[in-house]
Known about the structure:
This protein is of the alpha+beta class. The protein contains four helices and seven strands. Strands 1-7-6-5-4-3-2 form a seven-stranded antiparallel β-sheet.
Amino acid sequence: xxxxxxxxxxxxxxxxQDALWDALxxxxxxxxxxxxxxxxxxxxxxxxxxxxxxAPLFRMRKIxxxxxxxxxxxxxxxxxxxxxxxxxxxxxxxxGPYCALTVEHYDLTFPVVPTEGVADGWSRWAAxxxxxxxxxxxxxxxxxxxxxxxx
Length: 151
């Protein structure tokens, strides 16, 4: 396991720490806001996310967490060409009426290219999460074919 993340991103969301934690850990909420997944299931310590037609998107097995501030999990792509399993860390820090959310992605087996592949996917993920928490509506979109090929 790598000590340095291959990708880091931060965003600020107008929400409570509880609301952000719930959005990241409650499978019903995950399916409501995720930009591609329409359904999420939790079995034991593993989340499975599925596309609208039921095809698997990815799995995340919780490695460790500190309630309301940190989640460490595997990231296991289930789509063709999705790459090898890797590891993610989500860090939540309240700042008044906002929360700072930092995403760290470790053990990537391919290069990170700005606006493509993993970078584009995380940007879309964060935009949909932020929009859902702030407005109640998710941004539903697919990855462009060129971005999927880079992942």
